[in-house]
Amino acid sequence: MKKSILLFAVLAFFSFEINAQNYDRNDAIGGFGIRGGANFFTFGGSDAPNNDYDNRVGFHGGIYSNLFLGSRIALEPGVYYSVKGTQYDAVGDPRAILNYVDVPLLLRLYVTDGLNIFAGPQASFLTSSTFEANFGGSSFSLNTDEITKTDLGFVVGVGYNLPKGLNIQGSYDYGTSPVFKNSNADIYNRGFKVSLGYSF
Q: May I ask which residue range the UniProt record assigns to the signal sequence (predicted)?
């Protein structure tokens, strides 16, 4: 896992160096940057009925870089820490808290200098997992090793570049690896992200 994260991080910085030499567009559109925001995740799949699982609010934060392949197309690697999971509609407010390092590789298409759409694959590496619940005014947590360590999926979204290097975006994460590694349950990580970024 550490080698994969390091590889993508090196790619991000390498693409930034290439981009710095060849970049001829508005600073708000490309370069190296930081991004963070809110997560709204739950479990999806045929064995995760909507009336049993609710969106759980988490957060994400990390770095990215844009490598322009043309005047309107850019490749964007990134590395983010991301808190996902779900909440259950049951007594005790049980919830799953799953912490990952997300490593997306996105292709951005700039419709205008401000508006862009993007999509691409993402590998998510589990760093920790906890199941929590409240009973009788007290709470308890249970760590588990039953969660799949690597979640492969893809990301789609839309973004907009603001003045002064700022950018905003909304995206959807579609996990394709089952959450539970020793189970036949058709349950996956699915959720939305809302982000604010800054390009240097």
A: 1-20
**Multiple choice CATH, 2-199, 3.40.50.410, 3.40.50.720, 3.90.550.60, 2.40.160.20:** 2.40.160.20
Q: Which two tokens stand for residue 169?
A: 């975006």
Note whether 75 and 106 are within 8 A (CB). yes
Of residues 123, 118, 100, 105, the one with CA closest to residue 170? 118
Domain boundaries, the chain: 2-199
Closest by CA position to 45, among listed 173, 187, 190, 192: 187
User: Across the strands, what pairs with 129?
Assistant: 98
Read off the pLDDT of residues 82-141 as tens digits, 9 standing for 90 and up.
Answer: 999 998 877 778 889 999 999 999 999 999 888 999 999 999 999 999 999 888 767 778
Task: Please give the single-letter amino acid code of residue 111.
Answer: V
Determine what percent of the chain falls in helix, strand and coil, rounding each to the nearest 5: 10, 60, 25
